[in-house]
């Protein structure tokens, strides 16, 4: 899936960049905090961020990972409500802080439609993940998340697709709605099938088609 910035025309990209200020965040640094007032939107230029929210029990639940070209925080900018999630850099991030994003959309109707489509895609994706939690086992959910990350951020290399995993195993477990132990078992099962090899925060997908088939199993 192409992130929003990649869908803009060169003129729209120039206009959007002109409205922002470049900022950087170190790995682990918080970009937005859930509940804070919304005053600006992030356009990710490099690096990746995780989006998470606190559950009623206080557990931090990972909702998504976003990378270069993604716009983050746009919903709160549009409706004026407090931040619905916390955004954290999971690797060094460079981004554009855009304060008048709503004004940009008012002046660029085509982009406003693209934002509507992006929000709709994310809502559909959230619905699919909720269904996954109820009907799919941990191994299938882990395969789904690896496919998602590989399709967005994977690098084709001899022997497969190399993926720098931006999440710890605890964070990956939170994202798939399972325990760290179950995620470890799922990764071991994928390795035993010859689908992946794992290293420290890196996964080599040896058989992308096989991993996709595993992700579709129920």
Task: Describe the overall structure.
There is one protein chain. The chain has 218 residues and is α+β, with helices and mostly antiparallel strands. The protein has eight helices and twelve strands. The model has no long low-confidence stretch (mean pLDDT 90). It has two domains: 5-133, Jelly Rolls (Sandwich), CATH 2.60.120; 137-216, Arc Repressor Mutant, subunit A, CATH 1.10.10. Helices cover 44% and strands 26% of the residues. The radius of gyration is 18 Å and the shape is globular.
Short description:
This is Crp/Fnr family transcriptional regulator. This protein has 2 domains: 5-133, Jelly Rolls (Sandwich), CATH 2.60.120.10; 137-216, Winged helix-like DNA-binding domain superfamily/Winged helix DNA-binding domain (Arc Repressor Mutant, subunit A). Helix 6 (169-176) crosses helix 7.
Layout of helices and strands:
Blueprint (H helix, E strand, L loop, with lengths): L9 H9 L1 E6 L4 E3 L8 E6 L2 E6 L5 E7 L4 E2 L1 H6 L6 E4 L3 E6 L2 H7 L1 H27 L2 H16 L1 E3 L2 E5 L4 H8 L3 H13 L3 E4 L2 E4 L2 H9 L2
Antiparallel strand pairs: 1-8, 2-7, 3-6, 3-8, 4-5, 4-7, 9-10, 10-12, 11-12
Strand share of the residues?
A: 25-35%
Helix content: 40-55%
CATH fold-level name of the largest domain: Jelly Rolls
Q: Which structural class best describes the helix and strand composition?
A: alpha+beta
In terms of quaternary structure, what is this?
single chain
Number of helices, where a helix is a run of at least 4 consecutive DSSP H or I residues: 8
For this structure, what is the CATH homologous superfamily of the largest domain?
A: Jelly Rolls
Strand order of the largest sheet: 1-8-3-6
The value of Rg in angstroms is 18 Å
Low-confidence stretches: none
